[in-house]
Amino acid sequence: MMIKEISNFESGTTFQKIEYKCFVPEKINYQWQINDNSLLVLLSEADRELGKLDAFSTLIPDIDFFIKMHITKEATVSSKIEGTQTSFEEAFINESDIDPEKRDDWKEVHQYILAINEAIEEMKELPISTRLIKNTHRTLLSQARGKERLPGEFRSSQNWIGSSLKKAVFIPPSHEFIAELMQDLENFCNSELLNSPIQVPHLIKIAIIHYQFETIHPFLDGNGRIGRLLITLYLIDKQILQKPTLYLSFFFEKNRREYYEKLTIVRTENKLVSWITFFLIGIIETAKNSITTFQNIIELRERIEREILPTLGRKQKDCLKLINALYKQPVMDSNAIATILDVHLSTANRMIKDLESKEILTELTGYKRNRIFAFTPYIDIFQD
């Protein structure tokens, strides 16, 4: 296997078509050597923070409740980058209660949630592969806007980033290059399984994979969302994380201009180290924030059990039952609350009123009927 120095990375070449030039990236399935000490220091710190996050997640009871919240936040933020307007709270509301003008956005977020969950389940049988990527893309686009844009299939025409082909800020490789480039990417993802295994640190590998996938842009739509999701799927597939607790979309959205600039200068100036540095900083920052989120959840649970429940007298048992349900579904209407508690609606409304007075529940609609309530202090942890 050929050894290449990461600081001498050559990104690719432009390819002349009849009316435009597209960019064709070099293949990435090589043994990459790292001689940059500052990169090695960042890599070490990123590995430590991911290790802390993974250990922390194994200590939390009912961790899957909170992972659902992480996935919903990822779906909301990643879709927001693509232009949807569904808020984090709205993602938990039933479709029938969503403003009809916002339902397409809501559907996109929920297809993303479904795509994440299906991909994680599918990885029990499949490695990260073209098949897995296509299946995930099919789920992502099949029921939302973009369902006419070849869900689950690589494009057979040219795409671009920008308002038009003539004004494009970036034109990915034309479609005839995609199959070979994606096969190379798949080989690199699973290089430890090949006859001549490649020994590249996993966080360096996934940084390169994300860059390469976004550069290939193999689908007509949904490339950004799939590319961001690949990061989390890779960390789970390689058992760096046992649970899907880390998503970089919020970091990319917060630093959107720098994110696109870093990807661009790899293509135009071969500065792969600059991109990887940015990526590792994102891993470190996001892992620390995720740990803080889990710590805040534990503190909230303890505060409710210590300060709120004892003030409710005979209602304590029902209140605890409702709170535990709200960790899984933090936005509900009064009928859903009555069903969970197995009580009459009037009894549920009295419980709701008590929790509103304790600032545990907040009414979202402002209506007198068909009211919807949010577990605000819990949602705020993820909003922060």
Describe the protein in words.
The chain is mainly alpha-helical and 384 residues long. The protein folds into 2 domains: 3-293, Orthogonal Bundle (Fic-like fold); 312-383, Arc Repressor Mutant, subunit A. Helix content is 56%, strand content 7%. It contains 14 helices and 7 strands. It has helices at 37-59, 63-81, 103-122, 130-142, 178-189, 202-216, 223-237, 249-254, 256-269, 272-308, 316-328, 334-341, 345-357, 376-383, and strands spanning 3-5, 12-16, 21-25, 31-33, 331-333, 361-363, 372-375. The strands form 3 sheets. Strands 5-7-6 form a 3-stranded antiparallel β-sheet. A hairpin with a 4-residue loop joins strand 2 (12-16) and strand 3 (21-25). The longest helix has 37 residues, at 272-308. It is globular, with a radius of gyration of 23 Å.
